[in-house]
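Support reply, case 0932

Customer input (verbatim):
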Amino acid sequence: MPVAKRFWCCTIVAAIVVFSRVAGAGDLQLLFDREWEFRLQEFPMLATYVGRHDYDDRLGRVARVDQQRRAEFWREILRELDAIDRSDWTRTDHVNAALFRRQLTDYVTDIEFRDYQIPILVDEGFHTAFARLPSEMPFRTRVDYERYLARLKDWPRYVSEQIANMRAGLARGMTQPKVILDGFDAGIASHVVDDPGDSIFFAPLEEFPVTIADTDRERLASQARAVIEESVVPGYRAFLDFMREEYIPGARQTLGAYALPDGRDYYAFKIRHFTTLDLSADEIHDIGLDEVARIRGEMQAIIDATGFDGSFDDFLTFLRSDPRFYPATPEALLKQAAFIAKTMDGKLPTLFRKLPRTPYTVAPVPDHMAPKYTAGRYVPPAAGSTQPGYYWVNTYDLASRPLYTLTALTLHEAVPGHHLQWALAIEQDTQPDFRQYDYISAYGEGWGLYSEWLGVETGMYQDPYDDFGRLTYEMWRACRLVVDTGLHSRGWTRDQAMDYLADNTALSLHEITTETDRYISWPGQALAYKLGEIKIKELRRRAEEKLAEDFDLRDFHDTLLASGSVTLPLLEQLIDDYIAEALEKR
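Our regenerated output:
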């Protein structure tokens, strides 16, 4: 998933007074606007990301009292939403209101479960979100730099509030499992530097725009060194000490979400949040088993076509061990990813009528994150910035980065996957802000997995090994339905989950380990991919059958992406409307 969507909600600040009840369609937008302004003040890093820089000098407040205050504000907004006269609402109003209700209800429920007591995943957290500030904040004027330094100065206070939340989580068993935290502290320790000039937070001070006077440059650089030494490094050191001395030793020994406080209800909520569907863990587990069996047959057919003499397990061992399938250098991996991405760029006009303006580039996962990070991810730029979108490729441990899965990874994370999807959504100017910047996993990740399959139609998989890599990625997502529900509702062990992935996919053993730990740390999110893709393929088959010779793949794709991130039930309504309108034009 796009990494920038994960942790903006870690920052909160002062409340806004709730105004009087609204009524009518016109006032629906006023309610959206008022809540959005509240959200930007509560989440200053979100404000920066969407191009509002009024709050660039601060971090949010995450203490329990702030969480409760924010939840009460959203409850009041929901009460006001219920009180609006809907007699003059358009269909768009109803769609907007449904998505707005979903967002706020999920925010409140998340707080009620006290999920804020776990502000970290296995591969990132509030501390890594903070480390992206040098690349996400604007640095054009003296004021920009001064706001940046003020924000850095606030870091120790912010860390102390996060630690207090995590300490409260320790007391009630609301923690990440201990077993997945081995090595987690390395990503924190990388920011505890002796020389402020070695900190990534000093990078914006190494080169200034020509508009910054020399005297201001010297002053700002000197202040930056002091702030990094006196605030940034101490903040990271405090978090590092807490993790090493309290959190990791005291973290829970259990794995599944069911073992958390109110764990089964918590996991059911996460399923609804990430899939947008009303499915039980058992139903999803069974869907996963069926998909695994189907894909396994397709994988065996490819093995047979290659003439390989051996079992399925032998073929996986061959793929994992033959040097031809692995890059010799980080540069070779990045160049191959860039070549695949550029090749797909040339095929986009056959799939879409409308293409985005925002460019993207290929870059390595930052060193301080790479050891426990996934194979690749899309990182969208902040609104109004001069940055492109980034398709991150993990160059750490090259022996675990097979080239036969690189095409599928690239189509998912770059184009026609997350970059194209995100850029089209962000370039719209007709939707309320809360929708334009939303990311619904079942929709977004479903599109990403569907995009991998589009590579078959566009001839992107050049040999049977690449195609087996594609099926490995599809199998991986099918296995997630089995593994995630197994871990979080059925008491599966970590080894049981890793063995299931190793037996059914050609993923490297290193990636199997990091992925399993990711599912353990993030209940429910892994379910979004396959369930979303199943729905998108179902809707495409429906459109093809009903429209027959009038079906145009470009129109179908443009319709899928035109409304931005939506729930799967709403997406189905939108496609049914598209089909009905197309039939009327016959």
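We compared this against your earlier run and they match. Two observations from our side: The chain has three domains: 1-113, 118-253, 269-532. The chain is about 60% helix and 0% strand. Please reopen the case if you see a mismatch on your end.
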